[in-house]
Specification:
The chain has 395 residues and is of the alpha+beta class. The protein is 63% helix and 11% strand. Helix 4 packs antiparallel against helix 5 and helix 6 packs across helix 10. It is rod-shaped.
Length: 395
């Protein structure tokens, strides 16, 4: 199996290695050595550790452990020659780089090993020389080995802290963008529900009665249908203007101050009673609540919209018969129930999109209640249980 090639040196490492090699050559040409006694006499020998150390510098960032191993061997060999200050200086940089660019385990172990090595050299020098010069040897050893490692630890800590702060800032920005997107989506859904609830029932009545006016030749029936059409078109226009005014003011209120309440159900029932008479429908309100304790505005609005949408659906789909809106309250729950006869309704009807049931279900879910709609025993039943206290959101 062929050996894997060494990674390409970083550009800065090449510059550092070239600078160190060039500096060492200048010192060698000027005969500036570090020691004279107890060394090999050939003055060319210091060039070997110098070149090896410069080669190790090329690996300081891409392979810091290999660079430290090669550099340590070169420094030990350099002790047997006259020595070159550039070789020692490059070794300090290799120790620093091994801590800064090495693995987390290496960053923890190298400073400890360097400290213990400095203590061992100091103690050995004291035992061997028994003079103050031994302390100087220990200090120089610490400057060459331990201080660069300590500096690497400090720089690595600050670098990791800066990276952590950057990642945290990116995460905060991402969360803020997600919150903004969710807020926009929620607002669009709320606007869609409002538009549907404000306009759909009026347009449905207009569609049904305009179809009746066109298909039935009785002048009195056409006059009645046109009256209903005018009434619903005027009310729908007023509702649209109110919603547009709310959007233009941009007050940020969850619901407009003039939102309908359960006190307006009588007028709503009367309006649908006139519109449904031609189809054989009778609209009735049954309110079994006791007491006059006020309800939270979101609950009142949701209950009103559910009743309004259910009446609109009955106007479009219910068979002739009673349409009953029931209000009840048990403990901390308000119940809204609308029933109508199930079957094929004769005469004109308005098309449905299915968005009404979705909107009602969303309104109930936002308040933390329960919702059910479907046929049972020949009756179409819509029921919503809305918690009066502990409302989660307005909608």
């Amino acid at each position: 199996m062929p050996a894997l090639p060494l990674p390409r040196p970083h550009r800065d490492d090449v510059i550092i290695a070239a600078s160190g090699l060039l500096g060492g050559l200048v010192l060698w040409l000027l005969n500036l050595y570090m020691r004279t006694g107890y060394v090999l006499a050939d003055t060319r020998l210091p060039l070997i550790p110098l070149v090896v150390m410069a080669a190790a510098e090329l690996l300081r960032r891409t392979s810091p452990r290999t660079a430290l191993t090669i550099g340590t061997v070169a420094l030990l060999a350099e002790q047997c020659t006259h020595g070159n200050l550039a070789t020692v200086a490059m070794y300090t940089d290799i120790v620093y780089a091994a801590v800064l660019y090495g693995t987390p385990a290496a960053a923890r172990r190298i400073p400890v090993a360097a400290f213990l090595f400095s203590l061992a050299v100091t103690a050995g020098s004291l035992v061997w020389l028994r003079s103050p010069e031994a302390l100087l040897i220990g200090i120089v050893t610490a400057l060459v080995v331990f201080v660069p490692a300590l500096t690497g630890v400090s720089v690595r800590y600050h670098r990791d802290a800066a990276e952590t702060a950057r990642l945290r800032a990116d995460q905060t920005a991402l969360l803020a963008e997600m919150d903004r997107a969710q807020a926009v989506t929620a607002e669009r859904a709320r606007m869609a529900r409002e538009l549907h609830d404000l306009v759909a029932n009026h347009l449905s009545a207009i569609a049904i009665h305009s179809t009746a006016a066109l298909s039935i030749g009785d002048p009195e029936t056409s006059r009645t249908a046109l009256g209903v059409i005018r009434e619903n078109s005027v009310e729908g226009l007023a509702e649209m203007r109110r919603l547009i005014g709310l959007l233009r003011t941009g007050t940020g209120d969850p619901e407009p101050s003039s939102s309908p309440t359960l006190g307006s159900l009588d007028a709503l029932i009367e309006q649908h009673r006139a519109a449904a008479a031609a189809g054989g429908l009778t609209c009735v309100l049954e309110d079994s609540r006791t007491g006059s304790e006020p309800l939270p505005a979101p609950v009142e609005l949701a209950a009103y919209r559910i009743a309004q949408e259910s009446l609109t659906n009955a106007l479009k789909h219910a068979a002739p018969g009673p349409v009953v809106v029931r209000l009840g309250r048990a403990a901390e729950t308000l119940t809204v129930e609308v029933t109508s006869a199930l079957g094929d309704r004769p005469g004109p009807r308005a098309p449905g999109s299915g968005a009404g049931l979705v909107g009602m279900r969303e309104r109930v879910a936002l308040l933390g209640g329960t919702f059910a709609a479907g046929p049972r025993d020949g009756i179409w039943r819509v029921r919503a249980d809305l918690p009066v206290s502990g409302t989660r959101k307005t909608g």
